[in-house]
Amino acid sequence: MGHLLPTNSVVYSLPGSNVFLKAIANSVDAYHKTDAQSFVIRSYAKDEAPLFFSVASEEVIDVSNLEVALPDFTGSDRSVDREGYVLKVAKAIEQCRATNGKIVLSRPVEVPMKTLHIGNSLISLRARYPQAFIYLLHSTTQGIWMGASPEVLLVKEEGMYTTMALAGTKWGEALFEQKEFDEQLTVARYILAMLEDTVVEVSDMYEHPFGPLRHLRTDFRWEDEREALEFAERLHPTPAVCGFPLERAQNFIQEVEGYDRSLYTGYLGTLTSNESAHLFVNLRCLQLFRDRALVYVGGGINALSDPEVEWEETEKKKDSVLSALHYE
Fold first, then answer.
1. Does an H or E element contain 93, and which?
2. 116 DSSP 8-state letter
């Protein structure tokens, strides 16, 4: 008999950990109770408020026999084929040339599925991506999501904050080119602008692996007494998931992508009073249904992008998650 995950609960494993924790909510609130631990989920849409699972209990869990009651899929197929995505990328390139900016374009992919072995899939994701945030979320309002995010939005420990600019993608032996450096610098400059009222320590740019993929990364560190959610909402959405100039990119995404991102490219993670926070951008994720999954993938577009390469990048990102899954 498997261990059934109840609604409004989450199983997660922090980067660098081999342990999974199960957190069950005793309430779901529109505000963070600062004297308690919460698990926060935040959609991509800027005008939607975060939801907070007020954690009733948290325990280390053996996920090998974990099960979840998957819902039926009731929507329509929103997948975008190669030709359609390439045309959208071409439009994004035109705008980027006009604005000297960046647009993060994404697409959902509907994938038929055999019966998924939830526990072994989580174990596989944990082993394959040791520096990712691994999670399985069961939400009454948002459904069932699983992911392995490589990107920190915000960490706070002992009064010290950290975040990262993570952008630009290569695979195999390909070298990073000017397109990826420009893309990553756009994110880094935006983060510094959002933190202009504090003193920030900035690392050199370096490569960050995610299985067969490689990204460019810069780390930021600062000390501050203000609450984590204030900084999280300042940073979200960064140009790593939206674009720059921000408002132009948001409008383009709304007009051209043609679907609701929901929790994809939002953020999620833990808050403990005002002492600690571990929040992650919701990337490399999928929404689970009884006989299929919706996989969400995207990539940063700028004036130097090649539409065919951008399609291939989204295929690589899709495969990075799907190839780790296990079936009954």
1. helix 82-99
2. B
How far CA 311 is from CA of 93, 184, 251, 286, in Å, comes to 13, 19, 22, 18
Structure tokens at 95: 């705008």
SS3 46: coil
d(CA 328, CA 323): 15
CA 109 to chain CA mean position, Å: 16
C-beta of residue 24 within 8 angstroms of C-beta of residue 262: no
Interval 170-197: pLDDT, tens: 999 999 999 999 999 999 999 999 999 9
Task: Report the alpha-carbon distance of residue 89 to residue 104 in Å, rounded.
Answer: 9
Please report where in the chains the tokens 């374009």 appear, as a residue: 105
Within 13 Å, how many C-alpha atoms sit on residue 192's CB side?
12
Total count of residues recorded for the chain:
328
Which residue type sits at 299? G
- CB distance 315 to 103 below 8 Å: no
CATH code: domain 3-71+79-322 is 3.60.120.10
Give the integer Cα–Cα distance in Å for 277 and 232: 10
Single pTM value for the model: 0.96
Q: Please name every residue paired with 301 in a beta bridge, in sequence order, or none if there are none.
A: 103
